[in-house]
Amino acid sequence: MDAYVTVDIGGTHIRAATFLRDSTQPIKHQRTSTHSADGALLDRISTLIETVWPEKEKVKAISVASPGPLDPKSGVILATPNIPEWRDFPLGPKLADRFGVPVYIDNDANLAALGEWRYGAGKGYHDVLYLTISTGIGGGVIVNDQLLRGARGMGAELGHVTVLPDGPLCSCGQPGHLEALASGPAIVRFVREQLAAGAQSALKANPGLTARQIAEAAGQGDALARQAFQQAGEYLGLALASLIHIFDPSIVIFGGGVSQSGRLLFDPMKASLRKYIFHPAFLNNLAIKTAALGDDAGLLGALALAKMALKY
Amino acid sequence: MDAYVTVDIGGTHIRAATFLRDSTQPIKHQRTSTHSADGALLDRISTLIETVWPEKEKVKAISVASPGPLDPKSGVILATPNIPEWRDFPLGPKLADRFGVPVYIDNDANLAALGEWRYGAGKGYHDVLYLTISTGIGGGVIVNDQLLRGARGMGAELGHVTVLPDGPLCSCGQPGHLEALASGPAIVRFVREQLAAGAQSALKANPGLTARQIAEAAGQGDALARQAFQQAGEYLGLALASLIHIFDPSIVIFGGGVSQSGRLLFDPMKASLRKYIFHPAFLNNLAIKTAALGDDAGLLGALALAKMALKY
Fold first, then answer.
1. Which of A149, A159, A174 is nearest to A254 (CA)?
2. Looking at beta carbons, which residues of chain B come within 8 Å of A246?
């Protein structure tokens, strides 16, 4: 039976899993640390792939979810903040040489969107807007059952849309991007700034302050913590209104750790979305859901990528 | 030989033209006023279609470029500011009944984008961002050789993205949309406001002041007029940076009357785009062009729509 080998290169771990053609349950899976002194990253990924390689089944393809930016056509990783030694690194060609099968690569947010569309919260929908909110804000878009890639494979950078031209600087250096207003670090920065300005709160400006701790404080009624999520949700709703005017999706899916803060973020987001949508018809039958695949979104997105490329 | 009948419903005129399958030169064309006391609009459109109906050739389809919002799947015009009597009006089904051929409908900006992509400035490109700047700002997007429609056919409303959350009100009622900052009326409003505040200028706040007059004054060195285009261009560049982060197009095409003001608008737009783009790779080989089809974009877009629907 045909098999598909998938790899998900995450910030802390790299995972690999092998699927048979009609299943989303892996027959083998394995993981390793992304950062290790124990050999070059490419060699460790290759070893991981060998570990999950099936004994009998014929492997049709290897597919990889990687942090970007990258070029999905050539399989070259252009640059990724987390892996400085990979700059213009031809990961796809190198793996194809080594294993003798086609290799497909796309960025993690795109593949999470693809995975959720084919196997998760977006199953059965044709126009999907996916946002992952954690340390950064990433995006993936399905337009009429096709993954939006763009001419250079660099599209769907939904965290890097300007929401507030005079707003705080984004990790990318530009002012007022959505990522600078509604990601985990943006929520933490707001709390720090308010504490420094003398705001009362149970929270302390300790170096390890996290969005999760702020969510917990908000759950216990802390006013500053609630305000931080209120503001992030309002900006998220404002940006989402523009994205809906652009894509007119049938479903919006939220992934990433910050999305797990639930109504704390989504109540103000929805109120803001209703306020800023310019025609109510855009909200007719618009589903808003949280991601269903959890940590497996990258692997299952890579599986979907290979199957679509091979038209299975 | 097969023929295609196309209709373009504009603000002042309705045009119809018939094309043979391998040509973009119409064998017949005719136009009439959009507004007239001489019978219902649908009847006048039907008469116009009869006028251009070919004697011998077999008509494969009628296709219509209409102001929106409309539902391209059902052919129903939901509402259009310019034609108040058409509310939830089943234009497609009515024409299909009357003429016994398939009828395809989409909104004017989408079809102008489609026309430019297939026959005009965007020929040979696969990922096209089209913006028309005139009384309003409309958009059309080609993603990997497919027209972006959205789940309800309401996507690509690129004039209705928020650029400045505390900015002036848009015609749609929302604050700070691109249309409220860079359309013709937005440029006029800025000049009026500055004149009212005492700015020196050769321009007078007469009721008929137009963006074209302001462009002419700018060409003669009027500082206020130049400032108005400078500001509109800057906002346009800011919005375009976000749209490029979202779509990663290979070409951006500008249509509409205000685009004909040339470098007055595009020099500040390009400077602003370079400032706000978050990675220079997005600008590699990015073509920026003005539309090539002029007033024929709607008819040729409708022609492209019918041919694509019929897979020719």
1. A159
2. 155-158, 161, 243, 246
CA-nearest residue to B178 within chain A is A242
The angle subtended at Cα A200 by Cα A198 and Cα A202, nearest 5°, is 130
- Measured over the CA atoms of residue B17, residue B18, residue B23 and residue B26, the dihedral's sign is negative
Clarify whether residues B262 and B137 are in a common domain: yes
Asked if residues A201 and A222 have their Cβ atoms less than 8 Å apart, the reply is: yes
- Statement to judge: residues B135 and B253 lie in one domain: yes
A154 touches chain B (CB under 8 A): yes
In-domain check, residue B112? no
Inter-chain touch A248–B143, beta carbons under 8 Å: no
Same domain, A68 and A138: no
Q: How does pLDDT run across A66-125, given as a tens digit for each residue?
A: 998 899 999 999 888 778 889 999 999 999 999 999 999 999 999 999 999 999 999 999
Within the 274-293 window of chain A, which residues sit less than 8 Å (CB to CB) from chain B?
A: 276, 278-279, 281-282, 284
CATH of the domain at B87: 3.30.420.40
Same domain as A140, residue A251:
yes
Instruction: Judge if A151 and A6 occupy the same domain.
Output: no
**A155 in reach of chain B (CB within 8 A):** yes
Compare all CA atoms of chain A with the CA of B286 and give the residue at the minimum distance. Answer: A151
Domain membership of residue A275 (yes or no) is: yes
Query: Chain A within 8 Å of B168 (Cβ-Cβ)?
Result: no
Same domain, A178 and A215: yes
Each residue's pLDDT expressed in tens, for chain B with a length of 312 residues: 899 999 999 988 999 999 999 899 999 999 999 888 878 999 999 999 999 999 999 999 999 999 988 999 999 998 887 788 899 999 999 999 999 999 999 999 999 999 999 999 999 999 999 999 999 999 999 999 999 999 999 999 999 999 999 999 999 999 999 999 999 999 999 999 999 999 999 998 788 999 999 999 999 999 999 999 999 999 999 999 999 999 999 999 999 999 999 999 999 999 999 999 999 999 999 999 999 999 999 999 999 999 999 987
Q: Residue B271 sits in which domain range?
A: 121-291
Predicted TM-score (pTM) above 0.80: yes
Establish if B114 belongs to a structural domain.
no
CA-based end-to-end distance of chain A: 13
- Contact yes or no for B242 and A160 at CB 8 A: yes
Q: How many helices (H) and strands (E) does chain B have?
A: 9, 12
**How many domains are contained in chain A?**
2
Residues A197 and A277 in one domain: yes
| Closest to A46 (Cα-Cα) out of A26, A74, A16, A67 | A16
B contacts of A143 (beta carbons < 8 Å): 143, 146, 148
